[in-house]
Amino acid sequence: MLNEIVEINRRHTSNGNVASYIPDLGKACKEDLGICIIDKDNKIYTAGEYDTKFTIQSVSKPIVLAMALMDNDWSHVFSKVGMEPSGDPFNSIMKLEMNDTKKPCNPMINAGAIVTTSLIKGDSVEEKEERMLNFFRKIAKNDKLSINYDVYNSEKRTGDRNRAMAYLLKNDGFIEGDVEEVLDLYFKQCSIEIDTVDLARIGTNLATYGVDIETGERVLSESVSRMVKTFMVTCGMYDASGEFAIRVGIPAKSGVGGGILASVPNRMGIGVYGPSLDKKGNSIAGLRVLEDLSRMLKLNIF
Ligand code: GLN
């Protein structure tokens, strides 16, 4: 069934484009489409280009949010970043000036994500980076996860819009410390290389409310996992989150690398890869794959 869903939807890849703001993302194969599902019994199902590596990009946002919530008092986190969907594109700067509080709307858009990155604890930049990478490795159950330095260098070189937002956030008191250090860590988190199996595993850990299905180890608290999934529902697909909730009805988070992380509470984690993106920056065929899957397996949580 998965093979069929992937092959039927592959044609939609021609209606989008791969991200091209940096050369490495532009090199992705537009026709690629892959999926991995890991269910609550730890059965793994794959189809298409499920093991192609790509950078996590914005799918890193819910994971760093989880870290920020575990490292800090929640009241502190939410004094720096809001809980409301923005309805604007992921890299929009507009509401930082327009909102009364100037606080970034939520942690799933760039402005809010840069704030959550700044909340990762550590005595030095190196320690923060190590803690972050280790947390990604743990939640994805993959010790080999690492940063793609070509992508990181390009993100850093071209990230002036994120830089502008970060300096504005610092000026308004939402970021403490050195802005360039925060941005450096943000560009690194976006450049972690993964595949759909890693994403499905992260989705499974969210689906079980934080308990590793193989070892029984708790990787996230129940309340943090609930909060992360809620943000994924309300803000995970940027300004397409409302339509996605209606059509698919599964907590999910997309990234411009073409990845989508999805988590069906108590049932399964899903990772999708399709680098051809629609105008809002979501995988154009990946959305269709999730829509079909949700209908066929009755995954809609609503
Ligand atoms: N690195 C990208 C950025 O910060 C990630 C955006 C995304 O995946 N939507 O703009």
UniProtKB/TrEMBL annotation:
Keywords: Acetylation, Hydrolase. SUPFAM superfamilies: beta-lactamase/transpeptidase-like. Substrate binds at residues 58, 110, 155, 162, 186, 238, 256. GO terms for biological process: glutamate biosynthetic process; L-glutamine catabolic process. It is an enzyme of class 3 (hydrolase). Its EC number is 3.5.1.2. InterPro entries: Beta-lactam/transpept-like, Glutaminase. It catalyses: L-glutamine + H2O = L-glutamate + NH4(+). PANTHER family: GLUTAMINASE (PTHR12544:SF29). Belongs to the glutaminase family. Homotetramer. This is Glutaminase. It comes from Asaccharospora irregularis DSM 2635. The gene is glsA.
